[in-house]
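User: Structure please.
Assistant: Input sequence and predicted structure:
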Amino acid sequence: MMGGAPAVGGPPRITLRNEFANIRLTLEHTRCGARLLVEDRETGAATYLDPIELAGLCLWPEERRAELLQIGIYAYDDTQEGADHARR
């Protein structure tokens, strides 16, 4: 689902959400050029991505994209110790 509208005179914003995430994207312009503010609306975590980082995401091999989810609350531990913990 997409939505969102910029505040009057504010930067363009897009909200993306589904059953797994609620993300707000804001396009910001600085003296060094444009960058994208990515905010996780559920955790409050945020980061800026510049064009070279976005280009890198486009080149990331599809079979390795799951690695991007292996952090924080999305981490998956397939070691024996992690599997034992998940069964408890």
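The mean pLDDT is 82.
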